[in-house]
Write a structure and sequence with these properties.
Blueprint (H helix, E strand, L loop, with lengths): L10 E3 L9 H9 L13 H12 L19 H7 L9 E3 L9 H6 L3 E5 L5 H8 L6 E3 L18 E6 L6 H11 L4 E5 L5 H8 L2 E7 L7 H8 L4 E3 L4 E4 L4 E4 L11 E3 L7 H9 L6 H8 L2 H16 L1
Parallel strand pairs: 1-2, 2-3, 3-4, 5-6, 5-7, 7-8, 8-11
Antiparallel strand pairs: 9-10
Helix pairs in contact: 1-2, 2-11, 8-10
Length: 312
């Protein structure tokens, strides 16, 4: 049983990279009735919803959200202004994100801290930027509401094509392949679709094809897997960190396994990749994989274990 004292003196700061303008409203609506101090900038709504939902899930009859102090802020500047030097004696849990440079002075002088990142490949990048021990960097992936992201359509025939900052010609290869086999499809561009439309099309899809770059987690992929949609993901092997001009190994789907889909053989998607993938659809079980690893309860238990370790 988790005791209240396990959280004594712990403050949790959450920061997400700005993108969707409606995210701040979602945060405020989610937490306004609580006694919360949450540092969170406008970020992708899916990530924010996943994080806040996970923090509200009961585990062993306890709630993390009732054991920590949070503050809602609209941007990083406000966070830095409100990070009082007196608080530097208090343990800090900061993340998950990889843009920590502006926190550097506070991070360096804070005695007890953990940096949260969403996947393993991000660890050396954050370590190089902050010049801190890898032991202070913990991996914690956000979960997905597997009850909301649940398929109810037995008659599927479509293919969802997902693009994120993609300027390659691979989209031509994909569309020609699907048209040549009379497979109906629809292209969804990152940041340009509504969640309900995305979910509705997933519910009619037998598969998804992902054309993106590096992903620190891949929330849209988790949503697809939870809807029992296997994915073919174009491989991405290297990440150039503009902050340090260094190159690191990376992934375009850090949580993709053979249960949920497959990677392309190279960093370009070919007809061979597509053929192998579509011939293998019957062997994938993405819904089972998602419910075993990325439910809100599972993610909540993981954050509990981290906080217990942090507070000991």
């Amino acid at each position: 049983m988790l005791k209240k004292k396990d959280f004594a003196g712990l403050r949790v700061y959450w920061y997400e990279e700005p993108f969707f303008s409606n995210a701040k409203k979602k945060i405020v609506e989610s937490v306004s009735s609580k006694s919360i101090k949450l540092f969170q900038s406008n970020g992708p709504a899916e990530v924010i919803d996943g994080v806040l939902s996970a923090l509200k899930v009961e585990s062993d009859n306890q709630k993390l959200i009732s054991r920590c102090n949070w503050v809602v802020n609209s941007n990083l500047d406000q966070l830095l202004r409100k990070w009082d030097p007196k608080d530097l004696e208090i343990p800090v849990l900061l993340g998950p994100n990889i843009e920590f440079e502006r926190f550097l002075p506070e991070i360096q002088i804070t005695k007890k801290k953990y940096i949260l990142v969403p996947s393993l490949w991000v660890v050396p990048i954050v370590q190089s930027r902050l010049n801190i021990s890898a032991d202070l960097i913990k991996v914690w992936a956000s979960g997905v509401d597997t009850q909301y992201w649940k398929s109810r359509n037995k008659n599927r025939k479509n293919v969802l094509v997902y693009r994120k900052y993609d300027e390659s010609d691979d989209i031509v290869t994909v569309c020609n392949y699907l048209r040549g086999r009379n497979i109906p499809y629809k292209v969804f561009e990152y940041g340009k679709y509504r969640q309900k439309a995305f979910k509705r099309y997933l519910d009619s899809s037998i598969a998804g094809i992902w054309l993106a770059g590096s992903e620190s987690q891949g929330m849209a992929l988790l949503q697809a897997w939870s809807m029992d949609v296997p994915t073919l993901v174009r491989r991405k092997n290297t990440f150039v960190d503009k902050s340090t001009s260094s190159t690191f190994p990376c992934s375009s789907a850090p949580y993709l396994t053979s249960e949920a889909g497959q990677f392309s053989e190279s960093e370009s998607l070919t007809e061979k990749d597509l053929g192998i993938f579509f011939d293998s659809l019957d062997r994938f079980q993405p819904r089972i994989y998602a419910t075993e690893n990325f439910t809100l309860n599972k993610r909540m238990r993981d954050i509990y274990e981290l906080v217990m370790e942090f507070s000991s």
